[in-house]
Amino acid sequence: MRRLFFLPILLFCSGIFADQIPIPKLAHRVTDLTSTLSEEEVSNLENKLKDFEKRKGSQVVLVIIPTTGDETIEQYSIRLAEDWKIGRKGTADGVIFLVAKDDRKMRFEIGRGLEGAIPDVTSKRIQVEYVRPLFKEGKYFEGIDQGIEKILGLIEGEPLPEPSSTSYESSSPGTEDDNFGLYIGALVVIGIVIGFLFKKLFSLLQAGLATYVGYWVGGLLGFSLEVMLPLLVIFFILLCIIYIAAKNPGSGGGGGWSGSSWSSYGSSDSGWSSSSSGDSFSGGGGDFSGGGSSSDW
Amino acid sequence: MSQGDFFRIRKSFLIGFTGLTLFFTNSCGYNTIQVQDEQVKAAWSEVINMYQRRADLIPNLVNTVKGYAAQEKEVLIEVTRARASVGSVQATPEVLNNPELFAKFNQAQGQMTSALSRLMVVVEKYPDLKSDKSFIGLQAQLEGTENRIAVARNRYITSVQEYNITVRTFPNVITAKIFGYDVKPNFSVENEKEISKPPQVQF
Asked: Does B189 touch chain A (CB under 8 A)?
């Protein structure tokens, strides 16, 4: 809800570091920007991770990049984690396996909900005992495969909520629309109820209250106050003028209607983005707090 | 005064009253301040948690190092002392309303960080210690904790920035003054870069 509001501040905050390598776009469970893995290997891993998510619900992704630039691998990794939000919301059971090939560094970024199943010590051991030796010989696919196998094995033993039938597909854009429709519906109902209640009182009050409700819902939808307030004031004044001109107190809920149509208009350009392609993969909203471990090879 | 007049006056009075109330409950930012104040507190708790986690690792770490490198008294004493001084600063949320205490807390944690990195440098001289299973485990835990501290601090910085912007912009600044919400102290950026570097550990 408030994401829109946080974004500039986050951007500002991350701007204190020197040139940052941009975060790749999340489209698949395996993102290889170095062409280290063959297509067959990529799809092999991809399917393995996909099946696991279907079965267990946890999202595990692999990212191979050339370098993390001026940042340490930890800094880059947490930025990526905050951007992608791998793992389910609330359960926070996502894992990111990040390999910075030219830096010869790797990291497991462990979601908050898996820090018990995969403590730092364990993920370090996986890296040092299984992945590093293979990476040293240049066997990248084998090393990655080993690392992922071990991680999946650990998550397997953790009692997690059942995967919901849709969680492994991209979050359908419908959900947001549904939410939105719900708000609009609620707004209209509230407007009508209020209009009905105050029919016997003052029609101006209906307008005012409808405006207020509209504002309140707008706030719920994540519009900032600065955007809403001037528009609402204008809207309110306009309504007042209309009402005074009409002197017609019988139009209960009219204010509610205008309020709703106004916010639906406002929201259409509020920058709601949702992935709409049917087969793409996206994070489920899991959060990370920096757990995991890094190693070189 | 006719009844109509009376109604009109009551009407305008009510409208004015409702309008004003709505205007103030929405636009004075009181609720925004409440929400963000709470977020800052939560972010701060996370920072304290992670520092606590680090402090809990220290005794084990010191004992493990002692087993191999008892002659490195200086460094070990320094770490132990830093650990004690960290414990002496009460890091309650009240710290946030007291820049002096906040600075003190930071200083103590900073000393802890530097004492630890010196310890890790000393460790380099003892191959047996470095290959000790429990030491390797502790080292991984310490690294992970240091990273968590860095993340928690960054999130605290973000939430405080947001809160401070809120309480310093018009018209929220009026509300903040009335209800006594002050700007909260933040980690400075230069300091941040220095402290958030985890101790360098070579293998």
From this structure: yes
